[in-house]
Amino acid sequence: MDSRWRSVLAIAPYVVLGLLVAFVVPVQWGQWSRLGPTLALCATYGLWVLVMRTLPFRWRDRPAAIAVFLTGAIALNLLLVLREGTFGFLAIATFSFAYSLVDWPWELLPVAGTAVVAGLAQSSGFRGDPAGVAGTIAVILLNVVVMCGLSFGLHRAEQTLHRTAVQDERARLAREIHDTLAQGFTGIITQLQAAEQASDEAIRRRHTESALGLAREGLAEARRSVQALRPTALEQTSLADALSGVARSWSARTGVPSAVTVTGTARPLPTETEVALLRMAQEALTNVEKHAAAHRVTIALRTDPAGVRLEVRDDGRGFDAVERLQNAAAGSGGYGLIAMRERLESSAGILTVEARPGRGTVVRAEVPA
Predict the structure, then answer these.
(1) What proportions of the chain, in percent to the nearest 5, are helix, strand and coil?
(2) Residues in the chain with pLDDT < 50?
(3) Where would you tag: which of 91, 183, 275, 357 has the fewest CB atoms within 10 A of its CB?
(4) What pLDDT does 41 receive?
(5) Do 301 and 259 touch, CB atoms closer than 8 A?
(6) Collapsing DSSP states into helix, strand and coil, what is residue 204?
(7) From the CB of residue 241, how many other CB atoms can be counted at a distance below 10 Å?
(8) What DSSP state is assigned to residue 306?
């Protein structure tokens, strides 16, 4: 349960009870034979909640203790309603306890009991003739249907939110795995293949050390991704500096020159946006290394009042952008494009890929202010 909901649930019974007492005391003032027992029941209800739920006893979350607590709370609420119908509002607190403490579908039992108490409160002014009795039964049944329906609706909504959260987390982890482990493995394989083909021991050692460095970086980034932390490149620097560092490391490893240009007035961006742009640049560089056979790469970051725009351009062999995107959508490769697009969409951004065979490639991300 969310910590804010727990805090509300902890104080709600006392707030509702205090408001009801503040309302009842002036109404029954001077009627001591009536007011005295009412206040005693209010104090008992408050102490019951304090002992059974608020105080941190170890046994309070045991199923038997919860059953005893809810039974007592409903019984005390009923006694208060029989004395003064206004205490039907206390059913709000009792319902919240029933919903939050008992697993589905057993929560329907205390919810139904709470509905009966609320129905009796609402029909407290009915006469005792057959018409009044029938009206009371109808009101109680209506409360049972409404409250149990509300409980069911909240349960379904909670399930939907949980499924959505699980799917979002799976998608996030899939993107992070692709952006950390998959990219790292690609670089490691490339460096090891270059080391195998090297004729000079110094060159072979340089490629081997690069592979080890990529393995260490990939492991560190994977750990941070699982913990949903900012990438190391963004931890203590700006997005522009992070892009420059990524480009320098990439050029040193691949031997392909790269240049980073930054225009506009830099301003703080949401963490999610910075991560999406950095990962997009890393994925684009990885694709250049794997497929483009480029001689030069430029990275341009522009910030203006309309938003931020990041562009990675290479002069490599290019490809059929439409076919590549269709293959990615069909699940036959190209997950990197999907990951880039999903990251940017989560920040209300868009991804554009411009490429033609033999004419190079431009990958562009635009995120509105």
Answers:
(1) 70, 10, 20
(2) none
(3) 357
(4) 92
(5) no
(6) helix
(7) 15
(8) T
Which of 24, 26, 14 lies closest to 93, judged by CA? 14
3-state DSSP assignment of residue 265: coil
Strand order in the sheet with 297-304: 258-264, 297-304, 307-314, 361-368, 350-355
Q: Using CA atoms, how far apart are residues 113 and 109, in angstroms rounded to an integer?
A: 6
Q: Is the pTM of this model over 0.85?
A: no
Distance CA 348, CA 326 (A): 22
Rounded CA gap, 48 and 22, in Å? 20
What integer pLDDT is reported at residue 267 of this predicted model?
Answer: 76
Question: The tokens 């329906």 sit on which residue?
Answer: 149
Cα-based distances in Å from 61 to 10, 68, 100, 151, 368: 14, 11, 12, 21, 48
Q: What residues pair up with 354 in beta bridges, in sequence order?
A: 362
DSSP label at residue 86: G
Identify whether the C-beta of residue 360 lies closer than 8 Å to the C-beta of residue 294: yes
CA atoms within 13 A on the CB side of 216: 6
Backbone angles phi, psi at 57, to 5 degrees: -75, 145
Model confidence pLDDT, tens digit, residues 137-175: 998 999 899 888 888 888 888 778 777 766 766 666 666
pLDDT of residue 69: 92
pLDDT at 102: 86
Note the pLDDT of residue 44: 94
Q: How far is it, in rounded angstroms, from Cα 121 to Cα 94?
A: 14
Contact 73, 97 (CB under 8 A): yes
Tokens 């670089």 found at: 187
| Residues composing the chain | 369
Per-residue 3-state assignment (H helix, E strand, C coil) for 214-230:
HHHHHHHHHHHHHCCCC
Residues 6+ apart with CB under 8 A from 333: 327
Partners of 258 in beta bridges: 297
* Two tokens, residue 144: 């049972």
Strands (E), 251-296: 258-264
Cβ-proximal residues to 364 (8 Å cutoff; 6+ apart), any chain: 309, 310, 311, 312, 351, 352, 353, 354
- Please report how the helices 108-122 and 91-101 are oriented relative to each other, as an axis angle in degrees rounded to 10: 170
Q: Is the dihedral of CA 331, 181, 213, 246 positive or negative?
A: positive
